[in-house]
Amino acid sequence: MNIKSKALLAYVVIFLAGGASGYFLNEAVSPGFTSESFERGPGMNDDLPSPGEEEIPQKIKDFFIDRLDLRDDQIDPYFTVQSEHMQKVFDVLRENRRNERDTLRQMHSDFINEIDEILTADQIEKLNSFAHPDSVQQRRMERQRHRQGRRR
Predict the structure, then answer these.
(1) Beta strands in 1-152, from DSSP E residues, in sequence order
(2) Where are the beta strands (DSSP E) in 13-151?
(3) Phi and psi of 44, rounded to 5°?
(4) Which one of 37, 72, 75, 115 counts the least CB within 10 Å of its CB?
(5) Which is more confident, 66 or 129?
(6) In terms of C-beta density within 10 A (0-12 exposed, 13-18 middle, 19 or more buried), how is residue 73 classed?
């Protein structure tokens, strides 16, 4: 095996190991949110306020002021435009999240229609109990509630 093959193989192994560890450690290191905030989606929860809903913390303002060398006459206009921009970003993310849920439900429905003749009604019911997009989200919220209960 030549050196390029070894390097490529090492890269692939490291990439896969990093991806696997990120997948398995994600829930261990991600912050816990309430089920209500999970359902509301980005920019709509009380746990993490949207930029347009609450004043930007002074520490963040100071960071931008320092890094951009903002003059006094630039500070208010900059943060006004930045807040409006971030609100637009959260609005787009919220809409995409709604579309994503609808798409996943439709794709699952199409899948069930395709396997309807292969599986029995009981098997389809069992499949839906753990693979339907709504049941997956429900179990995710239950795990989060369980984790939050252990932390308290």
Answers:
(1) none
(2) none
(3) -120, 5
(4) 72
(5) 66
(6) exposed
Cβ contacts of 136 within 8 Å, gap of 6 or more: 130
Are 40 and 53 a contacting pair, CB within 8 Å? no
Q: How many domains does the chain have?
A: 2
Of 57, 17, 42, 127, the C-alpha closest to 93 is 42
> What integer pLDDT is reported at residue 133 of this predicted model?
81
Mark whether 4 and 59 lie in a shared domain: no
Does one domain contain both 20 and 68? no
Q: pLDDT digit string (tens) for 93-104? A: 888 888 888 888
3-state secondary structure of 53: coil
CA distance 41 to 33: 11
Q: Are 71 and 107 in contact (CB under 8 A)?
A: no
Angle at 39 between CA 88 and CA 132, to 5 degrees: 120
